[in-house]
Amino acid sequence: MTITSVQDEIWALRLQRGEKSAINGLVERHNDALLGYLYRMTGGDRALAEDLLQETFLRVLRNIHQYQEGRPFKAWLYAIATNAARNHYTSAESRRTDSAASDDLPDVPDEHQADEDLIHADETQAVIAALAKLPDHQREVIVLYYYQSLSAAEIADALAVPVGTVKSRLSIGISRLRAAMVDAQKERDA
After folding, report:
1. pLDDT given at position 55
2. Three state DSSP letters for the chain
3. The pLDDT value given to residue 156
4. What is the spatial distance between Cα 77 and Cα 157, in angstroms, rounded to a whole number?
5. I want to staple 138 with a disulfide (CB 3.0 to 4.6 A). Which of 34, 41, 93, 134 is the partner?
């Protein structure tokens, strides 16, 4: 167990004992990374990612009694975030259309930014668009593994699937992501 995971567990246990202020330490530690995860899971919809982030921490507060001492808090937290995203997309009133996703444009960069920043922003948007085309179960493992640095075992714990399933989804998802990126590049070049 790392120092970070021990500190997370301490905050979680304090929260279980009724110390509501302990949520502040968990939010401070995980807010940015969790927002990045949800941003990628929503296909680059920042407002939706922020809403899901709030919903995730509200669920942590409501369900902290279900956290089991000794279980990695980070995996438990990402399981809650993943379920919040899944619930959003499966609820009838909040279905997102493909055309709405393609209407999301990146923020216009300051005219004084370097060309490299513009290229990087374009590539980032291309990756987010390609990720959005993947099936949810593949996108989840790719984002958790590559962007959130969770191990295959932590992802398996967060998603309640075997480690072999995580590895399979990761392998197939990466292959599909590469193909989507190649296709997108061909479309841009045409």
Report:
1. 96
2. CCHHHHHHHHHHHHHHCCCCCHHHHHHHHHHHHHHHHHHHHCCCCHHHHHHHHHHHHHHHHHHHHHCCCCCCHHHHHHHHHHHHHHHHHHCHHHCCCHHHHHHCCCCCCCCCCCHHHHHHHHHHHHHHHHHHHCCHHHHHHHHHHHHCCCCHHHHHHHHCCCHHHHHHHHHHHHHHHHHHHHHHHHHHHC
3. 93
4. 11
5. 134
Side chain identity, residue 126: A
**What is residue 180's predicted lDDT score, i.e. its pLDDT?**
86
Query: What's the pLDDT at 77?
Result: 94
pLDDT score, position 123: 64
- Give pLDDT, residue 184: 79
Domains of the chain: 3-189 (1.10.10.10)
The residue ranges of the chain whose pLDDT is under 70 are 1, 92-123
For residues 35 and 54, what is the distance between their CA atoms, to the nearest angstrom?
10
Residues in CB range of 166: below 8 A, 6 or more apart: 141, 145, 152, 155, 156, 159
